[in-house]
Amino acid sequence: KLQAWLTLAGIDFKIRTANLPKAPNGKAPYITFQGQTIGDSSKIIAHLEGALGVDLDGHLTAAQRATGHLVKRTCEEHLYWAVVYQRWLRDEGWAHTRSLLDGMAPGILMPIVRKVARGKAIKQLKGHGLGLQPEPRVCALAAEDLAALAATLGDGPFLFGERPCSYDTTLYAFTSSALRIAHPNGVTDAVKQ
């Protein structure tokens, strides 16, 4: 989401491997901007909007902003957890996710970082409630989210017509994330449909 937002906003940036022990909240993404380290995509975007005067949503009506908010919440608060389920809870997903963590902490710490990270992700997933559901139910719920998102998007190139907005970055990030799950699963199948 952050990378898509930075691109649409025309902001130059460099992507680096995260150093999780130095990351706010121990998670990626985070940025260093004007000597300040900021974590969480939404917080980063809000900070950059204010600091740089960027407003990708200036052309939206109040009704469009409300719809965009619902799209964002559907992606961030539900579809996200279906992807977390596939990547962190399922062993097939964990095998791939585990390899992505390499280099995010000193080598000697990686086994501990992997174990703690997976345990934390699963605990959060179960706390959300989706982690307590059987996989077919998780995939069915994600398919409902994706069908609603597809109906909202319609045939336009962007959520609200010809011009992109910040809500498009969220929609792109979460659907493409679901599309790139490394093992066969119902969430990715629903995105493809």
Average pLDDT reading: 93
Major sheet: arrangement of strands: 1-2
What is the strand content? under 5%
Number of helices: 8
CA radius of gyration: 17 Å
Write down how many β-strands occur, each being a DSSP E stretch of 2 or more residues: 2
Class derived from helix and strand content: mainly alpha
N-to-C CA distance: 22 Å
Order of helices and strands: HEEHHHHHHH
Describe this structure in words.
The chain is mainly α.
Concise overview:
This protein has 193 residues and is mainly alpha-helical. The protein is 61% helix and 4% strand.
Output the keywords.
single chain, mainly alpha, two-stranded antiparallel sheet, 4% strand
List the helices and strands and how they pair.
Layout: H1 2-9, E1 30-33, E2 36-39, H2 41-52, H3 62-89, H4 91-101, H5 110-128, H6 135-153, H7 166-179, H8 186-192
Antiparallel strand pairs: 1-2
Helix pairs in contact: 1-7, 3-4, 3-5, 3-6, 3-7, 6-8, 7-8
